[in-house]
Amino acid sequence: MLLASGEPDRAAPRSGGETGRSRVMIYSHDTFGLGHLRRSRAIANALVGERPGFSAIIVSGSPVIGSFEFGSGVDYVRVPGVTKLPDGDYRSLNLNLSIEEATGLREALIRQTAETFDPDVLIVDKEPTGFRGEIVPTLDLMRRRGARIVLGVRDVMDDPALLVPEWERKGAADVLARCYDEVWVYGLPEIYRPLAAFDLPEHLVRDTAYTGYLRRELPAEPILTRYPGLTRRPFILVTTGGGGDGDDVIEWVLSAYEADPSIPLPAVVVFGPFINRDRRRGFMARIARHPKLDAISFDTKLEVLMSRAEAVVAMGGYNTFCEILSLDKRSLIVPRTKPRREQLIRAEEASRLGLVSMLVAEDGVRAPEAMARALHALPTRPRPSDVVIPGLLDGLDVIRSRVSAILDPAEPRGSLPEAAE
């Protein structure tokens, strides 16, 4: 329930300083792709080391979470995975369970983790109710225990015409008002306001912070990874993130090189772990026949390969966009438009500001000549640093500051980027 002031009815918040330890739990449902996991990992790695005894745990359903490196003080709990079917429904990824049984198991594991780990701060990534409402019992538990509950959302969620009915169906806005203390938007209002269509309660309007984007640092060079020979000279990196929905982008790039041998820079394609195997096999056969193309399957340290690239072609998901900004790379964004318009909206706004260039299919037709022209022009496009936007990459610093203020409530909050009127 809500108090008369609009604040959630909850136990008094705790101080991490009083308990002698500081704990943050991040819930990342990860039913598809790598976006939620990579964002959660970046935040957790940034938080540890801020004070003695700091621990962060990520609860995720990603089947590849064990492939990533985490900082000292960070660990993860993997709940059973689920996968989305072509008709929009879900099924258990590996277990022979109904989706209801799988969700019930995930819900119990999430709640048990929170009960035992007993975090001071719970950060929920993107979905206020989690997958099929699985996080709600944990929210109620954490509220009773006095943990600070935060919804962290990327800069763009979806077209409001699609997002509002989806949240109404899930009861997400009601849960947000009842259970959450703060909202952190991992972007800037100059680019987009992802929750502008919702009538948020007063306490969430007051405690919504636009943090800026999450800066990515270069990880240590991988010891065992062998990059293609094309990476020894200027090249274009083609990445589709997890790869589960990037076939069209890869097809368009390959067709451009096949149609126009004069494209000046070669391209290295990173398929991602979720690409269809038959499609990858077909792509590899074409790549092997072209002297300006090569590919690798998956790289958990994509930042290293991106740092070496002259330019980037990508779908423009949130994490790839952060890496492009952080590494100051010229980029061509080829956004997905279905089932969500998130990438398209981000690409349009970033292109408007001059941070990226963008290419979309004309009337649904991906003409090789259009991609070839864009690849010819890409090496001379402006870099993101040519555009000055205050606070653009301050996200992790703001998050660290906010968590410190939560753990030490006697300390002043300092200045937070707030939603402008």
Automatic annotation (TrEMBL):
SUPFAM superfamilies: UDP-Glycosyltransferase/glycogen phosphorylase (SSF53756). Residues 288-359 form the Glycosyl transferase family 28 C-terminal domain. It comes from the Bacteria. GO terms for molecular function: hexosyltransferase activity. This is Putative glycosyltransferase. Keywords: Transferase. Pfam families: Glyco_tran_28_C. Residues 1-20 are annotated as: Disordered.
